[in-house]
Amino acid sequence: DGGITQSPKYLFRKEGQNVTLSCEQNLNHDAMYWYRQDPGQGLRLIYYSQIVNDFQKGDIAEGYSVSREKKESFPLTVTSAQKNPTAFYLCASIPHPRAQHRTGYTFGSGTRLTVV
Amino acid sequence: GNSVTQMEGPVTLSEEAFLTINCTYTATGYPSLFWYVQYPGEGLQLLLKATKADDKGSNKGFEATYRKETTSFHLEKGSVQVSDSAVYFCALSVDSGGSNYKLTFGKGTLLTVNP
Question: What is the longest distance spanned by two Cα atoms in chain B?
Fold first, then answer.
């Protein structure tokens, strides 16, 4: 079955460390997205990519970086510059950017990142 | 800009009660509207959608009608079950013909259904 796989499910980071969250999809979707979810704040867009080798900042990109070297993969790095990284991170995709006007996103099951 | 305002929770109901979760929006353009559901510890799943005015989206007993005159897309279910306990998100997308495509989400409403 096609879908989005996020790993790991739980991740612990020490202060000052960079960590990378994996997002892989086998849906042949062009566009991929990273959202951060905090209690009471809904979903906030971090980065998105509408095509391989291209990506744009979302609303809260500071302290994060991404790459899109392959269509199937859109990893997110949480750098030490992100002051409050503890959150639930969700990856999503759609067949192509304009499809979201007609279809919904497909979401992964998320990664819960905790700073220790 | 685009924004979504939904009813603040938490909402607690007894099994078989009637559910309404309010959602209103502002949009520059003609949006499509969505409801997503998030079960504990999981990602979001698309629950239903409507792409034009007066469309009714429905799925699993849930319904929402796209009301352009009131800029609303309220979620309803006639008889909730314990298994409906989850967080519900209202969202919109506007096809402006440009290159900046993204969904705008509300903050979510936590629903708890007690037996």
Answer: 48
Interface with chain A: mutation pick from B96, B101, B104, B105, highest number of A CBs within 10 Å = B101
What percent of chain B is predicted at pLDDT more than 70? 95
Lowest mean per-residue pLDDT among A30-34, B1-5, B101-105: B101-105
With a cut of 90, say whether residue B13 has pLDDT above it: yes
In contact, B36 and B7? CB cutoff 8 Å: no
CA–CA separation, A90 and A111 (whole Å): 7
Q: Are strands B56-59 and B109-114 parallel, antiparallel or unpaired?
A: unpaired
Q: Are B61 and B107 contacting, i.e. CB atoms less than 8 angstroms apart?
A: no
- Is residue B71's pLDDT more than 60? yes
Burial of residue B6 (CB within 10 Å: 0-12, 13-18, 19+) is buried
A77 pLDDT more than 80: yes
DSSP-derived secondary structure for B9-60: S-EEEETT--EEE-EEEE-SS-EEEEEEEE-TTS-EEEEEEE-STT-EEEET
Verify whether the Cβ–Cβ distance B93 to A43 is below 8 Å: no
Q: Which two tokens stand for residue B102?
A: 């993204």
SS3 (DSSP) at B83: helix
